[in-house]
Amino acid sequence: MSILFSNFFQKINEISPLEADFTEVLESIAVKPKMLYFYGKMPENRLKSGCKRATERPKSIAIVGSRKPTKYGENIAYKLAYEAAKRGAVVVSGLAYGIDSVAHRGALDAGGVTVAVLGTPIDQVYPKAHIGLAEKIVASGGCVMSELAPGVEFYPKTSFLQRNRLISGLSDVVVIPEAAERSGSLNTAAHALEQGREVFAVPADITRPLSMGCNRLIRQGATPMLGINDVLDVLFPPKRQAKTRQSSLPFGDSPEETVVLQLLATGVQEGEQIIQHTSLTVAQFNQIMTLLEIKNRVVALGANRWTLR
Q1: What pTM value is reported for the model?
Q2: Are residues 269 and 131 in the same domain?
Q3: What is the biggest distance separating any 2 CA atoms in the chain, rounded to whole angstroms?
Q4: Is residue 2 part of a domain?
Q5: How far apart are CA 145 and CA 125, in angstroms?
Q6: Rounded Cα–Cα distance for residues 128 and 82 (Å)
Q7: Cα separation of 120 and 156, whole Å?
Q8: Burial, 256: exposed, middle or buried (Cβ in 10 Å; 0-12, 13-18, 19+)?
Q9: Do both 171 and 104 map to the same domain?
Q10: ω into 127 cis (within 30 of 0)
């Protein structure tokens, strides 16, 4: 059993999923965890626009992938985690070597919150080399969690795969930046699809072994991530700008001309109808129409009927 000396690991918290706003979504997955054990602090709800109480669960993104990624995969994982955390999303991953640890570090560098889900009992942070990373996660307001109680016997071949359903279950979207054809991250993607989460995979060179997993996921229906904004726009849909569309109605050189032109724009063509809709005298109307015709703004159709040019 790993011995953890940091003060951050002095207290192990124990809750059921329903006891925390962030974890209650796990009640909807197929195999629900009975209890959760964690160090640190669960992500808190945010204040929704127009509300006095914080009732909105923070957006969350799972970023998982190869334990031996290329620089290409690392760069994508880091940039995505950084930008998502910067916007307030919680970055969820598994504390493993490779893509997982890069995602956690990207979130931390952005000053954001990240959650590490272990496949080991809570008192056995694995890998041991990442105990320092786990401490940083806790110190930065995140948490390290497991469904396995301290000291229980576990079976690595199955417990890490079972853990993956929690990573996807806690997340709104799951992103695989890089993965081989046989990869635990594909298991996470499978859980995500079962749970109704959107899965993104980064397409890459079909001749590279570490591209095979992502390319196969795309062939099976995952959404290709062609840029970081593909994911960020799902997490944070762009606010529909109120269209300050410029009025398409015409304007004249005087209030009287404007009234006439806008009536013509709405389909009124009869001179008499225009006079009825305005306070113009017949003489004023005739003068305005002559000026507008000279300015090439209107066309006479005959019989005191007019249209815009």
Answers
A1: 0.74
A2: no
A3: 101
A4: no
A5: 10
A6: 24
A7: 8
A8: middle
A9: yes
A10: yes
Q: Which residue has the tokens 């070597």?
A: 97
CA angle at 178 for the pair 29 and 146, rounded to the nearest 5°: 35
Q: Cα separation of 114 and 58, whole Å?
A: 12
Structure tokens at 122: 């809570």
- pLDDT tens string, the chain, 309 residues long: the values are 344 545 656 689 999 999 999 999 999 999 999 999 999 999 988 755 555 555 789 999 999 999 999 999 999 999 999 999 999 999 999 999 999 999 999 999 999 999 999 999 999 999 999 999 999 999 999 999 999 999 999 888 899 999 999 999 999 999 999 998 888 889 999 999 999 999 999 998 888 888 899 999 999 889 999 999 999 999 998 875 444 344 567 888 888 888 899 888 888 888 888 888 887 899 899 999 999 988 889 888 888 888 888
**C-alpha span between 266 and 77 (Å, rounded):** 55
Which residues have CB under 8 Å from 23's CB, separation 6+? 15, 17, 36, 42, 170
Whether residues 75 and 218 fall in one domain: yes
Look up the domain containing 287 and give its range: 255-308
> Residue 284 class from Cβ within 10 Å (0-12 exposed, 13-18 middle, 19+ buried)?
middle
Split into its structural domains, the chain has a count of 2
